[in-house]
């Protein structure tokens, strides 16, 4: 079982530092979940984790505070405490990786909502048509996630192949299934015009999603993880053009859009930040 594997790995780490005792443990996991009861509630990327109690096995083994947050909230805490959002009172963190979700720091506190469902921006529909993400066609996650970019590229590449103008990285129908956001991103960085067209669509939709957050939440910063940091040079001009068209200028003027300050390590710091939150809450 995965929890047993995690426990064994944790024991190895602890054994290497016999002079130190953990003060708290933090768990970062894709939602939905119940942070108070410590339950994982069938996340899209962990479909067999239905009402799985991840807190009790650790609580029974370690007499220390243990916290659980969804990955967007955990990364928001990490970026707020240690990364690009340090010093902010109002900040939004967007995952933009396997999925699309938001962690919200509002008035200097993590905002989780009534039942840990705040920040599920990936479910918001941005367009009537488009890739399916979070169970909805044309959703924020459908356009702005690793899986969504792959689906978008497959759809666009299929049409191009049928029209006799196959992209360099997908020459025939047999190549469609293996398309990924990484493949398209690499081609875009190398100057492939078709791949850049794919990211133009992504950037436009990301800008629309950000405009919604700017208008509704009026944050100081929106920090974006994973894919945005890797493709910032390509995405940023498209995103900012769209934002200037879509967002209220008074709100946009005080909001900075930046990649995760912790870069590819934001996930590592996420669990630590949840642990610190749990420790301070005791």
Based on secondary structure, the structural category is alpha/beta
The amount of helix comes to: 40-55%
Average pLDDT figure? 94
Query: Main sheet?
Result: 5 strands, mixed
Strand order of the largest sheet: 8-7-6-11-12
Question: How many DSSP helices?
Answer: 11
Overall geometry comes to globular
**What value does the Rg take, in angstroms?**
20 Å
Q: How do the SSEs run, as a string of H and E?
A: HEEEEHEHEEEEEHHHHEHHHEH
Uncertain spans? none
Number of strands: 12
Portion of residues in beta strands equals 15-25%
Give the termini separation.
29 Å
3D structure, described in words:
The chain is an alpha/beta fold and 282 residues long. A hairpin with a 7-residue loop joins β6 and β7. The radius of gyration is 20 Å and the shape is globular. The two termini are 29 Å apart.
In short:
By secondary structure, the protein is α/β, with parallel strands linked by helices.
List the helices and strands and how they pair.
Layout: H1 2-15, E1 25-29, E2 33-34, E3 39-41, E4 50-53, H2 56-59, E5 66-70, H3 71-82, E6 91-94, E7 102-106, E8 109-111, E9 132-133, E10 136-137, H4 140-143, H5 146-162, H6 181-189, H7 193-217, E11 221-224, H8 227-230, H9 232-246, H10 249-252, E12 256-259, H11 266-281
Parallel strand pairs: 1-5, 6-11, 11-12
Antiparallel strand pairs: 2-3, 3-4, 6-7, 7-8, 9-10
Helix pairs in contact: 3-11, 5-7, 6-7, 7-9
């Amino acid at each position: 079982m995965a929890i047993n594997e995690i426990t064994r790995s944790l024991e190895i780490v602890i054994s290497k530092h016999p002079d130190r005792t953990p003060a708290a443990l933090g768990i970062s996991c894709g939602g939905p979940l119940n942070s108070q009861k410590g339950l994982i509630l069938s996340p899209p990327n962990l479909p067999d984790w239905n009402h799985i109690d991840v807190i009790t096995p650790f609580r029974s083994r370690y007499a220390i505070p243990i916290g659980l947050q969804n990955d967007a909230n955990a990364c928001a805490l990490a970026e707020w405490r240690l990364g690009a959002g340090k010093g902010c009172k109002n900040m939004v963190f967007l995952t933009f990786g396997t999925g699309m979700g938001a962690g919200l720091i509002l008035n200097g506190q993590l905002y989780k909502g009534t039942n840990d469902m705040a920040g599920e921006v990936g479910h918001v529909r941005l367009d009537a048509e488009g890739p399916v993400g979070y169970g909805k066609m044309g959703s924020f996650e459908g356009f702005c996630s690793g899986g969504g970019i792959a689906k978008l590229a497959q759809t666009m590449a299929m049409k191009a192949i049928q029209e006799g103008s196959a992209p360099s990285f997908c020459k025939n129908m047999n190549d469609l299934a293996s398309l990924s956001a990484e493949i398209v991103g690499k081609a875009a960085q190398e100057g492939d015009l078709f791949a850049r067209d794919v990211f133009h669509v992504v950037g436009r939709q990301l800008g629309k999603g950000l405009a919604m957050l700017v208008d509704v939440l009026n944050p100081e910063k929106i920090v974006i993880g994973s894919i945005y940091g890797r493709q910032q040079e390509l995405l940023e001009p498209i995103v900012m053009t769209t934002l200037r068209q879509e967002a209220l200028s008074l709100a946009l003027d005080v909001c900075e859009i930046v990649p995760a300050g912790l870069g590819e390590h934001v996930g590592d710091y996420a669990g630590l930040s949840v642990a610190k939150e749990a420790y301070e809450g005791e």
